[in-house]
Amino acid sequence: MIEPTLTAWRAERQKTSLNLGGKVTDLREVMNAILFLNRTGVPWRYLPHDFPPHTTVFSYFSAWTADGTIEKLGVRLHRMVREQAGRTAEPTACVLDAQSVKTATSVPTDTQGTDAGKKIVGRKRSIVVDTLGLLLLVIVTAASVSDNEAGKQLLRSNRITWSAERTV
């Protein structure tokens, strides 16, 4: 599933590069390193030596995040899981939820707010899941943002993500 996407990404990048013949990095090993970092939570510079250098892995991760490659892989994986569960690839229904969370005192005040109903100073995380419980989208806002406003934002973003990706 990953190889065709990463191969296409590399081919697109090589069209605009100078092709000076540098060392070719194994993109699968880069992805394995990113998955290792995600799973373990270790800092980039503590990446084991079995993987490419942490600076290389970080530069690929940054490029893939910026151009949407990571998101495309996530959407493909989501579709595969739905199809294996006997569902259509595209979700047709979703569930929204929000939770206010306290923040540390060191968090900048302009990124937090007060949830008046729960009397919590912090942030609010709002999610959308499909009927299988698979995560579709997450946004983090100040706790003062209403659930209705966060829900509207989630639904707009969700519609854009899932209708734009139909050709993937």
Automatic annotation (TrEMBL):
Q: What is this protein called?
A: Transposase
| Cited NCBIfam families | transpos_IS5_3
Q: Which organism is it from?
A: Streptomyces rishiriensis
Which Pfam families does the protein's record reference? Answer: DDE_Tnp_1 (PF01609), DUF4096 (PF13340)
Transposase IS4-like domain residues: 91-160
What is the top-level taxon of the source organism? Bacteria
Task: Give all residue intervals belonging to the Insertion element IS402-like domain.
Answer: 1-73
